[in-house]
Design goal:
11 helices; 13 strands
Length: about 350
């Protein structure tokens, strides 16, 4: 049994990860500031599910609050930390950039400092597929350079990777970055397409279909994501013996540092996803076609070969099954009769 801090524990992935770690017998301290970016009641309801477990404790604090964060670390003394707390959302970052500076840069710096002083064995942290930005070479590989972000959100996630590498190099803090690809599933985020579309279809309202529907996303079911993270927690990043400073590979280093894509390795047409939702809900969507929105990319596609080699990770949930489970949860949570 290990002591593990999960930040963003009231969030979508954080909630599922905390539950998964508790099932494995670990002791978990969840940290979250319960901000109002989306429905706080949904966050509280997630917490109520895992708070029943005797191995779980919770601390409400923002990553920007260095004093509060330090007290949480000092009191719990984590062996491992998974930092999933962040200001999320590509589109929100276009109109509210300061929120991303505060949470994703200042907050992450505080996490790094707390991990350094607590001598944490392994820090895993959320990055994003958005770091690939203007890169159109697919599938997206962590071996490729990602230096042209298209949103401030993406830029902060890329900055997190660089900050983590610095701490891995200077302080030998093992750091592993997780580039998530369009995660969906039960208890999901209301600002994500699957949730937004489901809500609109049930309510008979139009859905906004950007780039006139010519979009592909590597939709990744949350249980597959959690399976990968649970496996990685106890595999601290190590220096790569074959790393060549004359020909540096971005995902490895002479420091204890790694990057992994966490994706389904199977992009799905946006229109196919909508078709699947319509089938599960039993209603047709009112499709309002729009041009590409600023900050978006037309396609995402994860190369997960490194992750498979390291952990045996193999995403196993087709979009049809994942959406079926999500719609069933949505009906139950919002008390919608079939």
């Amino acid at each position: 049994m290990s002591s593990i801090i999960v930040t963003g524990a009231a969030g979508f992935i954080g909630f599922h990860l905390a539950a998964g770690l508790l099932r494995e017998g670990h002791k978990v301290l969840g940290i979250d500031n319960l901000n109002e970016y989306y429905d706080v009641q949904l966050k509280r309801d997630r917490l109520s599910q895992i708070s029943k477990h005797p191995g779980f404790s919770f601390c409400q604090v923002s990553l920007e609050d260095m004093q509060g964060l330090t007290q949480a670390f000092d009191g719990f003394k984590p062996e491992y930390v998974v930092n999933l707390a962040a200001q999320a959302g590509v589109r929100y970052s276009i109109t509210n950039p300061k929120a991303y500076i505060d949470s994703n840069l200042v907050g992450f710096a505080n996490i790094l400092e707390c991990c350094r002083h607590q001598e944490v064995k392994h820090l895993l942290y959320a990055s994003s597929s958005s770091v690939y930005g203007a890169n159109t070479h697919v599938p997206f590989s962590t071996h490729d350079h990602a230096d042209h972000p298209l949103s401030l959100y993406a830029a902060t996630k890329k900055a997190n990777e660089l900050m983590a590498h610095t701490y891995a190099h200077l302080y030998r803090l093992p750091c592993t970055g997780l580039r998530f690809f369009t995660v969906y599933g039960e208890w999901g985020r209301p600002d994500m397409a699957v949730f937004l579309f489901t809500k609109a279809i049930f309510e008979g309202k139009p859905i906004q279909v950007f780039n006139n529907g010519n979009m592909k996303r590597d939709f990744t079911y949350v249980d597959d994501v959690v399976s990968a993270i649970v496996k990685l927690v106890s595999v601290p990043a190590k220096p790569s013996l074959d790393w060549d400073s004359n020909h540096p590979v971005p995902s490895k280093s002479s420091a204890p540092y790694r990057l992994y894509n966490i994706g389904n390795h199977s992009p799905v047409e946006l229109m196919t996803m909508i078709d699947c939702l319509e089938k599960e809900i039993g209603k047709k969507a009112i499709r309002n076609f729009q041009p590409m929105q600023m900050g978006d990319v037309p396609s995402t596609y994860a190369d997960v070969s490194d992750l498979m080699q390291e952990t045996g990770f193999s995403p196993s949930t087709p979009i049809e099954d994942g959406l079926k489970r999500f719609v069933a949860w949505y009906r139950d949570y919002y008390k919608i009769e079939s």
